[in-house]
Amino acid sequence: MPDIFLVNKLQFKQLVDSDQIQDLTEVFEKYASEDTKKILTLSGPEPMETAKFGGKLMGLPWTTLFKENVHLLYIRADWMKNLNLPEPKNMDDVLKISEAFTKQDPDQNGKDDTFGFVFEKTFEFHRGFFNSYHAYLDMWIKDDSGNLVFSNIQPEMKKALEALQHLYKTGQIDREFATKDLTKAAESLSSGKAGMFYGPFSIPVWPLQAGKNLDPNMEYNYYPLLSADDKPATPQYSISG
To answer: Is 39 strand, coil or helix?
Structure first.
């Protein structure tokens, strides 16, 4: 077995249960630099705790800052300019832009070949959309009574799903999104077929740069999550992404 290797949480537990990996508690305290310790705890103590079993440090966690996972809304600015569309102020405005991108030939090529949103089968590109309706994916959250409830079955989720259903029925998202992974779905952006999507701050590096290389006129604006009502939208994040 190699000295260092990457595993998921299930594999990690299996290795611990079968006594295949070493207790790193003393090694980490003795040899890890102060910079290393600082980086691994930038998001708080929780990531390091996930790597412990029975109080023993059995591995080093992959960590990131919470804010790096928060989703923004990216919209084709050149398409908005072509269609003379105003800046969105709320989710209703966002949906109007999506409809315009689908029906009004935003790339001005004379073809009916564009649509509004990019989504994909893992729902990674859906997260910000749901958050705009105060719905959250795969999380335990507190309800109005302070009790922990599973986010996927809360009333807000139904509203978000109804909006998503409308987008699908009206051709504003890829009909085959449920069969496409993140890489495949991103091709709709780089190829200039879709004009809106949700993602973290790193999106301009990938996949936007690939689209810019193909079409120098491609421009995007980004926005914080816009709410479907008068209550501000709150983006979700967790120590696992």
So the answer is: helix
